[in-house]
Design a protein that fits this description.
By secondary structure, the protein is of the alpha/beta class. It has one domain: 3-Layer(aba) Sandwich (Protocatechuate 4,5-dioxygenase, Chain B). It contains nine helices and ten strands. It has helices at 20-30, 70-74, 83-93, 108-117, 136-144, 179-194, 197-201, 208-213, 221-227; strands at residues 4-8, 37-47, 50-53, 98-101, 125-131, 154-160, 237-240, 243-244, 248-249, 252-254. The strands form three sheets. A six-stranded mixed sheet has the order 5-2-6-1-10-7, with helices on both faces. Strands 3-4 form a two-stranded parallel sheet. It has a two-stranded antiparallel ribbon with strand order 8-9. A hairpin with a 3-residue loop joins strand 8 and strand 9. It starts with a strand and ends with a strand. 47% of the residues are buried.
């Protein structure tokens, strides 16, 4: 049975960075059994409808504006796709209609993490989008249907940020975490350690800190795809944590 993991990916520049977060991702990956393939759910493919990548050689998508180093725009993550895994995902999610999208590739939510987990880019990767029309509970229910993949050698990974408020972000040296961001990160950890899936799914009911921490669902929903895979007696362990830019949680979790 393959583990499952969620990665707080932070800035796109983490694709190129060596820091305490990327080192923790590498350490975790080094202990994993070799996956047959990877199913990645990224915050940055948040569109209407359900889609999976279908290209044999997916493009590296530089889904951000200027202001980043040239090296980031030149970066490529040349992992192969997997038509077989794409079709298996479509089968498992039926009767929901899932389109195979040969035009989308790996966005920075995917490759900023994968570049450290599997730097050789030799493991096939398929991305599953987030249908922006669905509420959190339906995402969780869809994710439950993907559970057989773990027994088929597929690593299911989510990439987003459990606390993500760019409007309240502060950039520069010496920026300290906002009190509300740290509080809500700790509250989420309490729910995770207690196995309280209901409080994690219905996050909008968790008060004012939740509203500040998750103003939009895109960066939170990938976590539900990992949470939904948790089996009886299995823990989601902290791989690394921290709050960057005052309002972005880098909390990463995984089973072992």
């Amino acid at each position: 049975m393959m583990p499952v993991a969620f990665f707080g990916h932070g800035a796109p520049t983490n694709a190129l960075a060596t820091n305490r977060y990327t080192r923790a991702w590498r350490t975790y990956a080094a202990a994993l059994p070799p996956p047959r393939a990877i199913l990645m759910v990224s915050a940055h493919w948040y569109v209407p409808g359900l889609r999976v990548t279908g290209a044999a050689r997916p493009e590296t998508v530089h889904d951000f504006n200027g202001g980043f180093p040239r090296a980031l725009f030149d970066f490529r993550y040349p992992a192969p796709g997997s038509r077989e895994l794409a079709e298996r995902v479509m089968e498992l999610l039926a009767p929901a209609r899932v389109l195979r999208d040969d035009g989308w590739g790996f966005d920075h939510g995917a490759y900023s993490v994968l570049a450290h987990l599997f730097p050789a880019a030799d493991v096939p990767v398929v991305q599953l989008d987030l249908d922006r029309a669905l509420p959190a509970r339906q995402h969780y229910q869809l994710a439950r249907r993907l559970a057989p993949l773990r027994d088929e050698g597929v690593l299911i990974a989510g990439s987003g940020n459990l606390v993500h408020n760019l409007e309240l972000a502060e950039f520069g040296p010496g920026v300290r975490p906002s009190a509300w961001a740290e509080r809500y990160q700790e509250r989420l950890l309490e729910f995770i350690r207690a196995g309280d899936h209901e409080r994690l799914i219905d996050y909008r009911a968790n008060g004012s800190d939740a509203k500040l921490s998750i103003p939009t669902p895109d960066h939170y929903l990938p976590f539900l795809y990992v949470l939904a895979q948790q089996r009886a007696g299995e823990s989601l362990d902290v791989l690394v944590q921290g709050v960057e830019a005052a309002s972005i949680s880098m909390l990463s979790l995984g089973t072992r």
